[in-house]
Amino acid sequence: MRILPLILLTSLAACSTQSSVSAQNHVDEKPIIFTANSGQSTDAFEGSFVVPENRLNPQSRDLTLRYVRFAATGTRKGNPIVYLAGGPGGSGIATAKYWRFPFFLAMREFGDVIALDQRGTGASNDMETCTSSHIVDGTQQVSDGEFAKINQRALQECMSIWQGQNIDLRGYTTVQNVGDLEALRVHLGADKINLWGISYGSHMALAAIKQIPDSLERIVIASAEGLDQTIKQPARTDAYFGRLQLAINSQPDAQAQFPDIRAMMHRVHANLDKAPLRIQIPQKNGEAVGYVLQRRDMQQIASAMISDPSRAGQLLQIYSQLDQGNWAPVAGLLQRFYTPGEGVSFSPMSVMTDIASGIGAERRTMIEKQAETSLLGVYLNDTLGLVDVDPSYDLGDGFREKPVSDVPLLLLSGSLDGRTYVESQHEAVSGLHNAQKVLVTNAGHNLFMLSATEVRPGVLDAISDFMQGQNVDGREVAVDLPDF
After folding, report:
1. DSSP state, 432?
2. CA torsion 432→433→434→436, rounded to 10°?
3. What is the pLDDT of residues 11-44, one digit of tens each?
4. Can you say whether the dihedral through the CA atoms of 86, 92, 98, 99 is positive or negative?
5. 318, 329, 300, 309: which is closest to 241 by C-alpha?
6. pTM exceeds 0.70
7. Neighbouring-strand partners of residue 410
8. Does residue 40 contact residue 13 with C-beta atoms inside 8 Å?
9. Secondary structure letter of residue 59 according to DSSP
């Protein structure tokens, strides 16, 4: 591990208020002191620009999109770097404030860094989450088929509510998001922009390569989600558990506790299918409510917790306890998320954007076949059960075609990413002739969020070298595994 980048990051975070803001103030921007959740702060600017909600509908309303600009500090100030948050639904401004503040400061070496709140997110959101009248009754056993129907009916209801609020739902697509990037470029007065994104942010960046190629200079993405990969392959999720087992086997105590994680998980699922557990979930008022724990619950919990190895370790402890007949840990987890009698809810930007990216017929047939025997079934893919509510929102197979381009792109992949798998990420960028790939061994989906002492120097080194025009293709960065 190189020490200099770590020292650089630490000093940037601790002494950021001493740096000068040399970039010119753009129209309608306001100087601010941006304070991160850690208490660290720096000079910045707040700005906004206006875009149509649906560029294909002249009658749609206007949206005000907001951002924070961190002015460049390097001696060679390049084009702006726009951060694209994941989700869809993540806030770029919140990301800068809570999770990746040192990264945002470090990236200023190469140009102004823009923390953008995409349409329908964070400070750019004027829509309410819809809680429907359709409820999945936790006190009763509910089949997978009925569960899917309840969610579909809930989405239909929410779509009607949003439309009644004059929201044009066809404005919430990746194509419209990329149009916003072009509007932002014009607003900033930049010849080109650089893109820096993760997860859904990479999906958006890949779409931008096809849609606004002449406006892009360089792209850095992590945990890539290809344009045809909104719905993940269950078979690749199964393969991920094999890689996770190999990592566990490198720790003798963990290997003794988890000699075969897939067998353990299958066993728990089979037992719950045969006899769902009636458990008690503690409530804030000190009481407890009854809940019927089914196989589907564990598949959904697992889908939410396998993104990173540290959380996967917590998940395996829950499975281990269930395997021994102890449901207290899973009840404690459900306490944080389950509200008795609450209807199924949706955020308009998140659900409609994923539905619009959609899935082609051939891929859908493959995924549904894989799901029949896979460990988590269809539950890594909430969208799969919702695309049929109104197929007219699908952007089509043309949108999902891989980009072909010479734009310089850096792809950072975690070897233990439980959501976007390395082989899928490589497929997503296979048409990009100037793509460079860096593997972060033992990292998961949120590889930017690991502690500075583990990953940021190596990742920052790779990004820095790439932004300066060096070749980093094939480089590996190793981080420590959590104690499983």
Report:
1. B
2. 70
3. 333 333 333 333 445 668 999 999 999 999 999 9
4. positive
5. 309
6. yes
7. 220, 436
8. yes
9. T
**Structural domain boundaries of the chain?**
4-126+171-227+402-478, 128-166+232-395
120 backbone φψ class: left, alpha, beta (φ>0; ψ -120 to 50): left
| Sheet strand arrangement including 111-116 | 30-35, 41-52, 62-70, 111-116, 78-84, 193-198, 216-222, 409-414, 435-441, 476-478
User: What tens digit of pLDDT does each residue of 143-173 get?
Assistant: 999 999 999 999 999 999 999 999 999 999 9
Any idea which residue has 């429907």 for tokens?
132
Helix, strand, or coil (residue 333):
helix
Q: Are 132 and 389 in contact (CB under 8 A)?
A: no
When computed from its CA atoms, the radius of gyration of the chain, rounded to whole angstroms, is 23
DSSP assignment string, 91-139: -HHHHHHHT-HHHHHHHGGGEEEEEE--TTSGGG---PPEE-S----TT
Distance CA 161, CA 156 (A): 9
Identify the CATH class of 4-126+171-227+402-478.
Answer: alpha beta
Residue that has been written with the tokens 């899973």 in this structure: 330
Handedness of CA 47, 52, 54, 59 (dihedral sign): positive
